[in-house]
Amino acid sequence: MVQEKLRILVVDDDKGITGSLRILLESEGYQTDVAHTVKEAIDKSYENDYNLAILDIKLPDGEGTSLLKALRETSPKTVKIMLTGYPMLKNAVDSLNDGAVAYLTKPVDVEKLLETIKSKIEEQKAAETATEDSISVFLRNRTKKLLTDN
Going along the chain, which residue ranges are E strands? Predict the structure, then answer.
């Protein structure tokens, strides 16, 4: 079972998709929020820290690729997965260049989505642990140096 603290934001204008994904993700133990517009997603990103966001390409008030760029500013640590019913090479390339870690098409294969989420969150945790370990080593070495210099 997934730790309760892991939060996912699902952004899609189709309420059926957001509802289905919320049920699926919550059944896997994730805390899940939904947004249906770019503005709503950005507002939620200021209010909450998300481990992962699943973003649709076509939204009523903008493109998912512009949302991807905005979330890079508001939530740089959030892992971003693009999910689209309009697969186009340009969107895929733009999404991956702008920080998406995966580009999946609708109808999404549920097992592939869950596998992608799990592996990307594990990668995120490993990167955070490596960073924390590096900082810890730096601080120990710096403290030792300061103590021996005095």
Answer: 7-11, 31-35, 52-56, 58-59, 62-63, 79-84, 100-105
Residue of 70, 66, 47 lying closest to 57 (CA atoms): 66
Residue ranges of domains in the chain: 7-125
For residue 53, which phi and psi values (nearest 5 degrees)? -130, 135
Contact 86, 107 (CB under 8 A): no
* Each residue's pLDDT tens digit, 71-117: 989 988 899 999 988 778 888 888 888 889 999 999 999 999 999 99
Find, among 8, 10, 7, 6, the residue nearest to 83 by Cα. Answer: 10
> 10 Å Cβ neighbour count for 139?
10
3 confidence band (pLDDT: 50, 70, 90)? very low
Give me the percent of the chain exceeding a pLDDT of 90.
57
What distance in Å separates the CA atoms of residue 1 and residue 25, rounded to the nearest whole number? Answer: 11
Helices (H), 4-109: 15-27, 38-47, 64-74, 89-97
Q: Which pTM does this prediction carry?
A: 0.80
Q: How is domain 7-125 classified at the CATH fold level?
A: Rossmann fold (3.40.50)
